[in-house]
Specification:
With 491 residues, this protein is α+β, with helices and mostly antiparallel strands. The strands form three sheets. Strands 5, 6, 7, 8, 9, 12, 13, 14, 15, 16 and 17 form an eleven-stranded antiparallel sheet that branches. The chain has a four-stranded parallel sheet with strand order 2-1-3-4, sandwiched between helices. A two-stranded antiparallel sheet has the order 10-11. Strand 5 and strand 6 form a beta hairpin. It is globular. The protein starts with a helix and ends with a strand.
């Protein structure tokens, strides 16, 4: 048996060396200038730290989450490789005979060869990013593959070192995703919203009409199975985004309770329909981003089914801007903004179908930071120049111009954040990102109020609300509607 194991290990070692030599002998046009530098840039994770910072600054909220996941995956892979991997096998580095001098690194690594730490870090970062944001993952993946290949190309690793390191990196990305999912579910805690007395209890779902956005992906499909099992008499209507508004309006006109399955943009449309029809809303989270459901304390479809069956609901406040699209008031459950973010969102939505979400976000950020001018308008009767105006429905916790988490959706206040104009937008927005809540500085203002009048808005200025995008009127009023909407949530 020992002889057989020795034979197999010998065969594998010869195959590994032959592949290493084949890479060394082959001429790769242009690679001598690029790959060694790329490998050096990835030393100590510098390349991936820079990539994460760029994604966080120029990307959306989902992109920032992807950047954090990528860094966490890299940290896990690096810790595993450098503590367990390197010192368990102790494989010597390849002999450099046959590797051209122009490819060899000026300073050779002193650690053991198996597995490749650079490959593990590269694929861990790429996997962590891709699992949270496939578009950005598509941007990062070719760079990660190039870094891994550079380790064989420059003669510091065998191909098997790279393959095993990359596999461990991918595994680290999946582990971090599972840990993040568990942590997110543990953090979903109901807030302090006022209970809604007399909300209809629908034990079998009769009277509940649920509109499902089929473009929301696999999460929505999985939630439907639970919904049909727990509330078999509920009516389910599936439609795509182009039919969503009409389907919601029609459903709200004949439902005892209007249900919706989708992400934040879909939920916004459903809340608007429910407000206009005067019916409660049942939310079944099923989109890529479910910020409203998380802030409300909804863990998933099972929780909503229980609340509908038992008649457990709360009153929440709703943000309103008047006039909104097509002259009617518009509503927001999460936030409203004018300035850099709506400009970026508009470019990204326009380019994403052609080049993908990640590249579109990066190109949009470059375009906005390079060409965007501050918006000159009048706030509460006073002229202002702003890079960004952000109004949250309820008080957000955390720093910066666009913070994240809310504890109470029923307080009936707008969380207003302003980034003043002047200077370049990039430094201003970055400075605001490190400014605390309720602050007043030359860069950033944060306060809370019930209403705000905005006038003298330049023609063509875009606005964004709950991820939706439209043109702003010349003047509008932002206000908060306390206890405007009844939403089902378990006690």
């Amino acid at each position: 048996m020992a002889d057989q194991e020795l034979t197999w290990s010998g065969v594998f070692a010869r195959w590994d060396r032959r592949l290493f030599d084949a890479v060394a002998r082959r001429h790769w046009p242009g690679a001598d200038r690029v790959l060694p530098r790329l490998g050096r840039a990835a030393n100590h994770g510098v390349l991936w730290g820079g990539a994460a910072a760029a994604i966080a600054v120029f990307g959306s909220a989902g992109a920032r989450k992807a950047a954090v996941r990528g860094v966490a995956s890299l940290a896990l892979a690096s810790a595993t490789i450098n503590t367990v991997g390197k010192w368990s096998v102790r494989r010597p580095r390849p002999l450099l005979e046959g590797v051209p001098l122009t490819r060899q690194l000026a300073t050779q690594p002193q650690t053991t060869s198996f597995p490749s730490g650079h490959s593990a870090s590269a694929f861990a970062f790429a996997t962590g990013v891709a699992l949270a944001s496939p578009g950005w993952g598509a941007v990062v993946a070719p760079v990660a593959a190039s870094v891994a290949f550079s380790r064989v190309y420059t003669g510091v690793h065998y191909p098997s070192d790279v393959f095993v390191g990359a596999s461990l990196g991918v595994a680290a990305g999946f582990v971090v995703r599972r840990l993040a999912r568990d942590a997110r579910e543990a953090q979903i805690v109901p807030g302090d919203e006022r209970p809604a007395v007399g909300a209809p209890a629908l034990p079998d779902g009769a009277g509940l009409v649920v509109v499902v956005n089929t473009g929301s992906g696999t999460a929505a499909a999985a939630g439907l199975d639970v919904l049909r099992d727990r509330l078999p008499e509920a009516e389910v209507i599936e439609c795509d985004g182009s039919e969503l508004a009409a389907a919601l309006s029609k459903a709200a006109s004949r439902a005892t309770v209007l249900g919706v399955c989708g992400g934040d943009g879909t939920v916004n449309a459903a809340a608007t329909a429910a407000l206009r029809a005067g019916v409660p809303l049942a939310l079944f989270p099923g989109g890529t981003l479910n910020h409203f459901a998380m802030d409300l304390g909804l863990a998933g479809t099972e929780a909503t089914c229980h609340a509908v069956a038992e008649g457990e609901a709360v009153h929440i406040g709703v943000g309103r801007f008047s006039p909104g699209p097509e002259g009617e008031p518009g509503y927001f459950l999460n936030n409203f903004s004018i300035g850099a973010y709506p400009e970026l969102l508009g470019h990204r939505l326009r380019w994403a179908p052609t080049i993908g979400g990640g590249p579109a976000a990066l190109l949009a950020a470059w375009r906005v930071l390079r060409a965007q001018r501050p918006v000159r308008l009048r706030l509460a009767g006073r002229p202002r120049s702003v890079w960004l105006l952000f109004a949250g429905n309820g008080t957000y916790h955390g720093t910066g111009p666009t913070p994240r988490r809310r504890d109470n959706l029923g307080e009936g206040l707008l969380d207003l954040r302003l980034v003043h104009g002047g200077g370049r937008p990039g430094p201003r927005l970055l400075a605001a990102a490190f400014t605390g809540p309720l602050s007043r500085s030359p860069v950033h203002v944060a306060t809370r109020l019930r209403s705000l009048r905005i006038a003298d808005i330049p023609a063509g200025t875009p606005l964004a609300y709950d991820g939706e995008h439209s043109a702003a009127p010349s003047a509008l009023v932002l206000d908060s509607l306390p206890d405007a909407l009844t939403v089902y949530r378990p006690r």
